[in-house]
Design goal:
With 463 residues, chain A is an all-alpha fold. Chain A folds into 2 domains: 6-176, no CATH class; 183-462, no CATH class. Chain A has 19 helices and no strands. In chain A, helix 9 crosses helix 19 (433-451) and helix 12 (280-291) packs across helix 13. The longest helix of chain A is centred in the middle third of the chain and has 35 residues, at 181-215. Chain A is globular. In chain A, 42% of the residues are buried. Chain B is α/β, with parallel strands linked by helices and 347 residues long. Chain B has 14 helices and 7 strands. In chain B, the strands form 2 sheets. In chain B, strands 3-2-4-5-6 form a 5-stranded parallel sheet, with helices on both faces. In chain B, strands 1-7 form a two-stranded antiparallel ribbon. In chain B, strand 5 (191-196), helix 8 (211-227) and strand 6 form a beta-alpha-beta unit. The longest helix of chain B is centred in the N-terminal third of the chain and has 33 residues, at 8-40. Chain B starts with a helix and ends with a helix. The interface between A and B is large, with 39 and 33 residues.
Chain lengths: 463, 347
């Protein structure tokens, strides 16, 4: 079940919230747990995945206690816990990819299994691992209530596509949090903004990317090819950022303050800055649990390059089990390293240059992210650069004008809402009648689109 | 006052939700029950005979001829001989054949218009168009009647139906009938080609759009062509089908439309499948045995259809092999919502 569906907004959410509000404080976490398991069950493809999900969480809960209770054996317990968590992630996400490549590399003939990824596994695995590591490091005490732990991991707002909330950020809130009308108001507003991002911008501008795939990359003009990667960049951002905002808004309705996941990434001056503003919780996870344990930047430049390499390689494959994601991660690594040692200072000092650099470079990296097939990818790159000799096919004359007219509203909205201006205005006027009426219009426009069936699933759902 | 302001959005949101909830619940209910009843609904079975994958993207005239060549039933032929359909065969014409042609269709025809090479033809097509909608639809500022009265067309190609394939076929056919009437009113002498809807890939099938449903509609369209004077049924699926009778995945990325570069193939196929009056010339027939059959004047889609189930033809003859009546359709999302609506309205 996705947040931007009529079933979620008009059936699941009201029923859940009424129940949640009606029960006394000490049962609220239980209601979160039960509601979230129902939510998960509605989205998952195989019933056995629900069992896997519950058992995994329970095991991490137990491992966390063992680590705290028996300091002598805490290392083996941690190793066991981490191995257990990653085993399932690797099995479900990378098994097919791994066997394929072993077959190619060694000419082996290992059987390929068609494995369906359990929904949310990339996210809950990272949360479970962060929890046991934090307990190991004594950053947080182990959770003693299975219900609280279950509520933390499974909490439906963040279960399926983040933000990746670490246990230590919400530990206190699990014990005690306040519910008041201001939070509800704030939560509903945030949810509405996220819904609008998703339904009114991402889904709409995403149509251009689908149109281009439908036409085939061979048959698009160069201006249209460039429009396509801009459209895809907007789609990806408003889709994922919208989802995160909806999650934060829903969290607020339950009294939680979930961490922010996006901070106007497209206004960055360098790729380094971009990745501090994009999917913030994932970046901090890698920094906290990979980069710093490896020594971070404290062991000399050589080690820094190596550590960054590991982080970006992992970031790449976290996003998907396919070579293009690995290439994508390595390209980001190369860009970020060159900024670190060479270009970064220049772009930070010359803002205009920095913006132009990012406006061109970010969509290009998303292109590698989006196209899994290398042949298609090379065709698309050649279309972007028409001076490279290439085989040409029939192209619709002035196709870019056709699509520019069709999508201009969404491009304008995309550009506008990528800047910091709307948020500044929102902060200033959020308690006014006008703001409430505007948000109401956004909400009903989104519902209208869903009603008309113009909606499509979250791109990040394959995680 | 300030306190009231703090929860203003919550209050108005909840109030409007309460007002709207009956409609929303009805929509949710209708969507889920439409899904259910569609699953129960019996689709007319059409045999999906095996076809050899069309490695040759170009439809070969020879294949076409040989199909006709095998049309056997001379009795049936004579009974139909006094039909106003005079002796004709499908054969090759050059692109100038389309000088006075009009293409009517949905998104797939939009593809032919934009990426095909038949730029000399006229087009009346838009994404999401259907036989149900066409009477009231404005395309490029005019209705279908405006277009039909603008000049005299020699040939009119119609490819509609994918957007309404989930609806009752009989109902859709009545929509096609009235479309044919409209066309005839303005263009009494034009040759009308009813095109079978293009299949979708296996992966792209949904509750609403299945190749079985497409075949059922295409079959009805072929019957409709038979019933009417100077109306012919042609079926593109012989070109783009794979061995399962679905759109071949290599030709498409969304599973519903062929890629831009394949519209050239499609246009080649249009050129190779034009109605030519008179017997098929000898030169085009491939084997001696077929010569007699090729002289067989009558050739109806119906016969071809039945022949298909026999399926004894040679490899490239996917036309006859494939039970195949496929139709061209439109934009997918729109089609779904449209289907839901009209399904509910009509039934």
């Amino acid at each position: 079940m996705v947040f931007s569906s009529l079933e979620f907004i008009f059936i699941f959410l009201p029923v859940f919230l009424i129940t949640y509000a009606a029960v006394p404080s000490k049962y609220k976490n239980l209601i979160i747990l039960l509601g979230s398991v129902i939510f998960y069950s509605l989205g998952v493809k195989k019933p056995v995945y629900i069992v896997l999900f519950l058992l995994t969480n329970m095991l991490n809960f137990i491992v966390g206690q063992f680590i705290e209770d028996s300091p002598k054996f805490k290392k083996p317990w941690l190793a066991f816990g981490v191995a257990f968590n990653f085993w399932w992630l690797i099995f479900f996400k990378y098994w097919t990819f791994g066997t394929e490549n072993i077959n190619i590399l060694f000419g082996a003939d290992l059987p390929l299994k068609d494995i369906i990824l359990p929904i949310g596994i990339s996210f809950y695995t990272f949360q479970n691992v962060s929890y046991i590591i934090d307990v190991y490091r004594r950053k947080t005490p182990a959770e003693r209530s299975l219900i609280n732990y279950g509520a933390y991991i499974s909490m439906f707002p963040q279960l399926i596509a983040g933000p990746i909330v670490t246990y230590s950020t919400v530990a206190k809130q699990l014990e005690e949090r306040t519910h008041n009308i201001r939070k509800v108001e704030e939560g509903l507003k945030t949810f509405t903004i996220g819904l609008g991002y998703k339904v009114l911008i991402a889904n709409q501008i995403g149509g251009l990317w689908s149109d281009i795939s439908m036409i085939g990359y061979e048959s698009i003009s160069s201006p249209l090819a460039w429009m396509g990667i801009f459209a895809y960049s907007f789609q990806l951002y408003f889709d994922f950022c919208g989802y995160s905002l909806m999650a934060i808004g829903l969290g607020k309705l339950m009294g939680f303050d979930l961490p922010r996941n996006f901070d106007h990434p497209y206004t960055s001056l360098t790729m380094t800055e971009f990745w501090r503003r994009w999917h913030i919780t994932l970046g901090s996870w890698f920094r906290e649990y990979v980069y710093i344990p490896l020594g971070g930047n404290r062991k000399g430049s050589g080690r820094l390059v190596f550590n960054s390499f590991v982080v970006w390689l992992l970031t790449g494959i976290w996003h998907g089990a396919s070579w293009n994601f690995i290439i994508w991660g390595l390209v980001l690594f190369a860009i970020i390293m060159s900024e670190k040692f060479w270009t970064g200072k220049f772009f930070n000092e010359h803002k205009a240059a920095g913006h132009i650099y990012m406006i061109l470079l970010i969509p290009l990296t998303w292109l590698i992210f989006s196209i899994t097939d290398f042949h298609d990818l090379s065709v698309y790159f050649k279309r972007l650069l028409p001076f490279i000799p290439q085989k040409t096919y029939s192209i619709l004359d002035k196709d870019y004008l056709k699509y520019l007219l069709e999508y201009k509203t969404y491009f304008i909205a995309g550009i506008l809402f990528s800047t910091k201006l709307p948020q500044k205005l929102y902060e200033k006027y959020k308690d006014t009648v006008v703001c409430s009426l505007l948000l109401l219009a956004v909400f009903w426009a989104s519902v209208y689109c869903m009603y008309k069936g113009l909606n499509d699933p979250f791109m990040y759902f394959r995680f | 006052m300030n306190k009231y302001r703090q929860c203003m959005y919550t209050v108005i949101l909840i109030l409007t939700c309460l007002v709207a909830s009956p409609f929303i619940f009805k929509q949710i209910w209708d969507t889920s029950s439409a899904k259910k009843s569609k699953a129960d609904k019996k689709e007319p079975k059409v045999i999906a005979a095996e076809t050899t994958a069309p490695e040759s993207e170009e439809p070969t005239t020879e294949a076409q001829e040989s199909t006709e060549a095998q049309e056997k039933p001379s009795e049936e032929a004579t009974t139909k001989a006094d039909d106003s359909k005079n002796t004709f065969h499908f054969g090759q014409s050059d692109a100038s054949y389309f000088d006075y042609a009009l293409f009517i269709g949905d998104s797939r025809t939009v593809g032919i218009k934009e990426y095909g090479y038949l730029k000399n033809a006229d087009y009346f097509c838009s994404v999401g168009l259907s036989a149900y909608k066409i009477a009231n639809e404005y395309v490029d500022g005019g209705t279908i009647s405006d277009k039909l009265s603008s000049k005299t067309y020699g040939k009119i190609y119609v490819m509609l139906g994918i957007n309404e394939v989930a609806n009752d076929t009989e109902y859709t056919i009545t929509q096609f009938r009235s479309l044919l009437e409209t066309i005839r009113e303005y263009q009494p002498d034009a040759v009308i080609y009813l095109e079978g809807n293009l299949h979708v890939t296996i992966a792209a099938q949904t509750e609403n759009i299945t190749n079985e449903g497409i075949d059922a509609l295409n079959y009805k369209l072929s019957e409709l062509a038979d019933e009417n004077e100077n109306v012919y049924f042609i079926n593109i699926n012989e070109v783009f089908d794979d061995e399962t009778g679905s759109l071949t995945p290599e030709f498409t990325s969304d599973g519903i439309h062929v890629l831009g570069k394949y519209y050239e193939t499609w246009c080649d196929w249009f050129c190779a499948n034009t109605v030519i009056y008179g017997d098929a010339p000898e030169a085009e027939t491939t084997t001696a045995a077929e010569t007699t059959a090729a002289e067989e004047p009558e050739y109806t889609e119906e016969e071809q259809y039945y022949d298909n189930s026999g399926d004894t033809y040679e490899s490239y003859d996917s036309y006859s092999n494939d039970s195949g009546y496929s139709d061209d359709g439109n934009y997918y999302d729109e089609s779904e919502s449209y289907n839901n609506d009209s399904y509910n309205n009509e039934y």
